[in-house]
Amino acid sequence: xxxxxxxxxxxxxxxxARLLGKIxxxxxxxxxxxxxxxxxxxxxxxxGTGLIFSDVQLAxxxxxxxxxxxxxxxxxxxxxxxxxxxxxxxxxxGIDYLLxxxxxxxxxxxxxKVKQFSPALSAEEILALSNASASKSYKSRFMVKxxxxxxxxxxxxxxxxxxxxxxxxxxTSSNRNYCIDYALDQLDGLxxxxxxxxxxxxxxxxxxxxxxxxxxxxxxxxxxxxxxTDQEVIVARERVQDFKExxxx
Length: 249
What we know:
The protein is α/β, with parallel strands linked by helices. The chain has helices at about 10-25, 35-45, 65-70, 85-90, 105-115, 125-130, 185, 240-245; strands spanning about 1-5, 30-35, 50-55, 55-60, 60, 75-80, 95-100, 140-145, 150-155, 160-165, 165-170, 175-180, 195-200, 205, 215, 220-225, 235. A five-stranded parallel β-sheet has the order 2-1-3-6-7. The radius of gyration is 20 Å and the shape is globular. It starts with a strand and ends with a helix.
């Protein structure tokens, strides 16, 4: 069976390839793709594929965009560090959903399922097999240092997180900015996706901050957020549709 791996983290792709070589040596990895930009033309070219492993979050957006542009008939196994994209995965030919780091036994179960693949597999069945917890808890507060003191900031008071000069900051509803000990990428799995949305590589915004939204160039959107004046807060073009759907929940 020919296999495609869509993954922008080299270490994760190598880990998956090693596990496949151990569990299913008959599978032949014919391509490793790192982005939506790479994957769309490759799949449009019609190369024979029996199975796709796809990370959800790629450098240029969510991999679901690939399968919106190029319908595929083969099964897809999604991989990600976060479980809150599970429902979206079921709208494609997603047959399973593996949380990183991928465990050997879970991968074995997913491959067994591929051999019995049915496009009619229900979302409930995939959820049960993915071991994704529907009751996952998210961070409720962040500790910040103010001088020689430590302060606790509840997430309800946070309007946005942003990167600036290799540091990460949070902005509160009282217009205070605090440096935190997290990279922006680390926050994705820690924040409740109902409340926070990553609009680009440098900004994660709260639903509370989305009160002043402007149309911007190249089909993008711009957010005006008091307290962030040293950089433009732009919704990346590939995130605009997901952002609109998030706002409309």
